[in-house]
């Protein structure tokens, strides 16, 4: 498509859209559960250090590459590298990875949407039964909910950058935040809530080991939407006068604040449900937490607030997670859309249609891999474990390739694009960045220990997961 490149309408619009991408299911549930299991305040501290010391510099690398090239990730790698075949491969990875992650993120969002719908229609009590989730993910209703979620994503994306993505973020993000604060205030007024706060915040350094450190880093990396080409793509929609380091800091801060505040909602809720729980012994994964444990907690509220009251609280929770998931899904879907538009000169509607169809096929296959279809349920097996189609996508793209993409972008900006150009690009629109301590830190870290750490995480995952 020729004509001027689409752009965000304002700086705050860009920040909200990028924060909308970053704030997702990972913040609202993944982080609190991870923190509760792994040392509370100690985990929080480590997470915050990783966000500032490792993730923020990678975010700057991604945003500056996008803004400088004014292209999708594939085009950005191609143009800046002067058409090098090897770097084009890195570009491909940054487009395929988000597309595949979108598949599993879509499936989870569909479940959330389904739960929301069923709560609103009066079925909270059913959802709180232990076997419901297992049956729910195998039911045909999933496909109707999937159509609903895809329609929402489609409607937002067909509006384009300013009238679609930015507008949605401007409505959904403040609403999400208001719901989160309301829920925090509500749970904090429940009996025993303070025990949860205590548990959440008091550091337990004994819990910290290599696995926990690795988990905190992966969580931070995923939470900031790095390694998925998203920040490259969103960066390509801002002009050269905007302050990239300043915006990136605000995005990271918002993301971390939401994760932190979500802990003040989840942990007190667990303790008011059962003051004797030991969250460090929780066997629930984040998924089990959202779809089995929390519905039980919400249902228990009926003793004091009646069934309708309990359903309202549950509905607000699921609506909030749904909003967070939608702005993330939109951002990740925009990456391949931008790639088709830029690389194939295609219009937005056509690109959306083609990718939408491909997405439907893969998402249906993933949804069918939960016991529905024997072949898809045990698709392959590695390291002695049989894996479903859904598991494979998760393992390969989320767990393995993300840190590799992070490693590649670091090497790319410092050794291919070169430090001077990287700095010149970041200085534009950010006079106070030039010569600052932060600039020196970013330069040094992106060229040295950050890629080393990300490569180590990648190699370690490959060694542990597949052999
Ligand atoms: N940052 C999101 C989260 O924490 C993750 C995500 C973003 C996933 C974009 C997909 C797309 O949940």
Automatic annotation (TrEMBL):
* One Gene Ontology cellular component: membrane
Q: Name one Pfam family in it.
A: SNF
Signal peptide from the UniProt entry: none
The UniProt entry lists membrane topology as: Multi-pass membrane protein
Compartments in which it is found: Membrane
Record keywords, A-Z: Membrane, Transmembrane, Transmembrane helix, Transport
Q: Which residues cross the membrane?
A: 12-35, 41-61, 89-117, 142-159, 171-189, 220-238, 250-271, 312-340, 352-376, 396-415, 444-467
What PANTHER family has UniProt attached to this entry?
TRANSPORTER
What is this protein identified as? Sodium-dependent transporter
- Organism from which the protein derives: Alteromonas confluentis
């Amino acid at each position: 498509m020729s004509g001027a490149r689409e752009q965000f309408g304002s700086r705050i619009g860009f920040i909200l859209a990028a924060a909308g991408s970053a704030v997702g299911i990972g913040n609202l549930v993944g982080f609190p559960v991870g923190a509760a299991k792994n040392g509370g305040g100690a985990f929080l501290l480590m997470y915050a250090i990783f966000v500032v010391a490792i993730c923020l510099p990678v975010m700057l690398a991604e945003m500056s590459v996008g803004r400088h090239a004014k292209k999708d990730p594939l085009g950005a790698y191609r143009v800046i590298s002067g058409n090098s075949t090897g770097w084009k491969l890195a570009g491909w990875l940054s487009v395929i990875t988000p597309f595949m992650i979108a598949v599993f993120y879509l499936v989870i969002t569909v479940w959330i949407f389904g739960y929301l719908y069923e709560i609103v229609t009066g079925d909270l009590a059913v959802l709180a039964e232990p076997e419901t989730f297992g049956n729910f993910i195998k039911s045909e209703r999933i496909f109707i909910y999937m159509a609903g979620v895809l329609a929402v994503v489609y409607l937002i994306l067909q509006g384009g950058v300013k009238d679609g993505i930015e507008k949605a973020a401007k409505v959904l993000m403040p609403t999400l935040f208001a719901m989160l604060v309301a829920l925090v205030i509500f749970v904090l007024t429940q009996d025993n809530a303070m025990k949860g706060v205590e548990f959440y915040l008091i550091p337990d350094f004994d819990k910290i080991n290599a696995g926990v450190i690795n988990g905190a880093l992966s969580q931070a990396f995923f939470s900031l939407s790095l390694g998925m080409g998203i920040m490259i793509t969103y960066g390509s929609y801002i002009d050269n006068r905007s302050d990239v380091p300043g915006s990136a800091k605000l995005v990271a801060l918002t993301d971390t604040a939401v994760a932190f505040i979500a802990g003040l909602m989840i942990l007190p809720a667990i303790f008011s449900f059962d003051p004797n729980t030991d969250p460090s012994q929780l066997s629930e994964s984040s998924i089990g937490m959202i779809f089995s444990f929390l519905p039980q907690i919400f249902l228990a509220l009926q003793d004091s607030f009646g069934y309708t009251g309990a359903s309202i609280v549950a509905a607000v929770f699921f609506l909030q997670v749904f909003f967070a998931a939608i702005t993330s899904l939109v951002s990740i879907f925009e990456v391949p859309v931008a790639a088709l538009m830029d690389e194939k000169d295609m219009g937005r509607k056509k690109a959306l249609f083609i990718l939408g169809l491909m997405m439907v096929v893969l998402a249906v296959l993933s949804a069918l891999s939960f016991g529905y279809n024997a072949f898809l349920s045990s698709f392959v097996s590695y390291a002695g474990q049989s894996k479903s189609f859904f598991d494979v996508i998760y393992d390969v793209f989320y767990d393995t390739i993300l840190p590799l993409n992070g490693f590649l972008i670091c090497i790319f900006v410092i050794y291919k694009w070169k430090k001077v150009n990287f700095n010149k690009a970041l200085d534009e629109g950010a006079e106070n960045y030039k010569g600052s301590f932060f600039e020196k830190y970013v330069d040094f870290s992106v060229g040295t220990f950050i890629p080393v750490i990300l490569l180590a995480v990648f190699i370690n995952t490959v060694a542990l997961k597949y052999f």
